[in-house]
Amino acid sequence: MSSDETNVGVDRMADAEPVPGSAKPDPILVADGVRRSFGGLTAVDVGHLEVQRGTITALIGPNGAGKSTLFNLLTGFDRVDGGRWTFQGGAVNGKSGHRVARAGMVRTFQLTKALTRMTVLDNMLLGAPGQFGERMAGAFLRPVWQRQERENTRRAMELLERFKLVDKREDMAGSLSGGQRKLLEMARSLMTDPAMIMLDEPMAGVNPALVQSLLGHITSLRDEGKTVLFVEHDMDVIMGISDWIVVLAQGRVIAEGRPSDIRSNQQVIDAYLGAQEETAEVGGSDDD
Amino acid sequence: MDILSILAESTRSALGPIAAIYALAAVGLNFHFGYTGLLNFGQVGFMLVGAYGVGISVAVFDLPLLAGFAVGLLCALVLALLLGVPTLRLRADYLAITTIAAAEVLRLVYRAGFAEPLTGGVYGLQNLSSGFRALNPFDGGTRYGVGALAYNGNHMWVLVVTWGLVLLMVGLTWMLMHSPWGRVIKGVREDEDAVRSLGKNVFGYKMQALVLGGLIGAMAGCMLAVYQASIQPDQFKPQVTFFLWVILLLGGAGRVFGPVLGAMAFWFLMTFTDGLLKGFGSMGWLPFLSGPDYGAIQLAFVGLLLVVLIVFRPQGIIGDRKEMLINVK
Ligand SMILES: Nc1ncnc2c1ncn2[C@@H]1O[C@H](COP(=O)(O)OP(=O)(O)O)[C@@H](O)[C@H]1O
Ligand SMILES: [Mg+2]
User: Where is the ABC transporter domain (chain A) (predicted)?
Assistant: First the structure.
């Protein structure tokens, strides 16, 4: 897939400078000084980062660059050593994972987390926000939550239809293939109706036939107005669908820009693209 | 040896008050482990605070029985919070270690000399069931039921109330687990990070499950105090928790009726092996064993049962094998 197919005549990032830490016209996420070290190793040290609303932003970098750690920090799944960040204008640093998700910033995991001994439909329904029946006392008031349940089931079925999982709805999630689990995890996170979705290697281990449909889902999410931030290794995929690319190396943002800027950036080629050639086979595997 | 009378005695035990009390405590453990995946190795601790809540209220402070139940449940609530607050944010094994230690510490504290004015120390507390018997609609002197399954009026009253509580708690389990609340709880068992990423307060749900299961465990302790009319601290040894785990795995963890069937099967088998050993002994087939050894053999049998169960039927009597065998990652 070439960049011209999906981005015909649209440059959603026209006003942004292709330099690390550049300001965006309408940022949904703004992070400052986010740091995390493990013992002596500084895994993440991001000075300033803005993510433009309504775009697909790719986060790339060699293995161990700190991409997953940055995801964990921003979404409240790990504790920072320092730093502040706001989402849709409100501070989210220091909030626990479930609060960040409720604020509209939802993430998936590099190692897929399907709830294996629950059905596909139950996986989906778990994503629905504000369920009365999820309160212990509310659970006893069947008629009240059953109405909500019907509405949530309808939404879940729509999403399952879209992600081609509708025939599997009564199957245990553990019986799905790796690629189907990735799809389920993505569909499930959409049940929360997020403003921004963060996908950690959504294509890893997915068979090539499914990759195309996954890419289609990601672009249509953007076209519906959601913001997508995703980690990926496959350069063709990244160049093809991203509006903006952020390059992380050894925990720092070393470059930012449109796909065309990144392709010609010598620093990126040295730090990442060169290495990418050598480890092309390892790149797509589920490693952590 | 009369095999029929051994079978009758075993059936009586499977339906008896002790089986009901263990079933109740196991229903609580089912909330912890079966549904939420919490490793509580100290369920006996909740039974202990429940039993002593009744014991101390009734025997020391002369309060009505209902107040005793309330005190017992309140103690269980406090215990659950004390156990849960520091551990439920950590990895699962921290709760396991904390509960096993806390239950044993509780037993040692309740039996200690300095606690004697309240707990009666090693001798425990007596005369605990007059309040309960005052409510008895059955006649204490008559026997109810048929043949080996006849119980005197007082036992009948305990049976009705305890099994009634078991049914009530089973109904509660069903209601909760067939609701969105139950769906979150099962999600926590599968992968708490996934549930958290969907905006659910995992810590809160784990705490609710710990409290609820603990309260049901305390209820079992209350009924034990009422049934026996007396309690001693050494009844609350770690082996009670071990039996409860056997019961839960035997019946089927994460199944609504699992703990009930498990408790019945367990006490049937315990009484059956006991009867069999005594029978063999009286026929001179076990010359190398003396009476007190039978207890040890019986416990070894429970261990063996657990091993056989895990190898051949890991899902328990009514568990779903398909669900059990799905690889978790
Ligand atoms: N929990 C952890 N404990 C110690 N080191 C960690 C931990 N998580 C990540 N790291 C280290 O931090 C660095 C960044 O890891 P990660 O964010 O997973 O990289 P990426 O996702 O970019 O491949 C790696 O060197 C990794 O070994
Ligand atoms: Mg990673």
Answer: 29-275
